[in-house]
Amino acid sequence: xxxxxxxxxxxxxxxxxxxxxxxxxxxxxxxxxxxxxxxxxxxxxxxxxxxxxxxxxxxxxxxxxxxxxxxxxxxxxxxxxxxxxxxxxxxxxxxxxxxxxxxxxxxxxxxxxxxxxxxxxxxxxxxxxxxxxxxxxxxxxxxxxxxxxxxxxxxxxxxxxxxxxxxxxxxxxxxxxxxxxxxxxxxxxxxxxxxxxxxxxxxxxxxxxxxxxxxxxxxxxxxxxxxxxxxxxxxxx
Length: 237
Hints:
Layout: E1 3-8, H1 23-28, E2 32-34, H2 50-66, E3 71-77, H3 79-90, E4 96-100, H4 106-111, H5 116-127, E5 135-141, E6 144-150, H6 152-159, H7 167-173, E7 180-185, E8 209-213, H8 220-223, H9 225-231
Parallel strand pairs: 1-2, 1-3, 3-4, 4-7, 7-8
Antiparallel strand pairs: 5-6
Helix pairs in contact: 2-3, 3-7, 5-6
């Protein structure tokens, strides 16, 4: 069986992307892969909605199927991991998830007060017909807030705590047990949530793993190459 992997980069990242560290190893192992540039790249900064991004990811997965891949895995880093999980829930059509240094937890950002004011501004703008007018709104990456000019409708699609990017809710909504490899950083930066936060909200699959890796958030994909290759099909059933 041929396995295809859609690689999804992290927030504010730019080519060649941290997750590109996996590409040579995937090729050498006989896997096919695709690495699209997504709306949260540094040169784009949310120029399309989260739903549009999920459609793009689903199209990438479908292209691998069309190319002959019998299994398709989504492998995301940081916000790319969030989008990988959301795609599996809201679009389907994937056979497994690899989530590297999971990031962008809209429900936590709102609960901690980081995005509450910006969410209120965005909702007010949308209600008053200004949802497509870029305005200064707060984003947070690894504990660092940054004011970006984002369309309110796009902002809500990424940051609404009840939206399509919410982690625990997405794990609970997975339609069937799905093999998942979660690799969480154990290094400098914002502390990621623990195993009980979202991982254990999903239906258990025998091949699913949650592991900590001695790496920083940005460096984790490069540190995880051997673990990822060992986990990929045909090793799991």
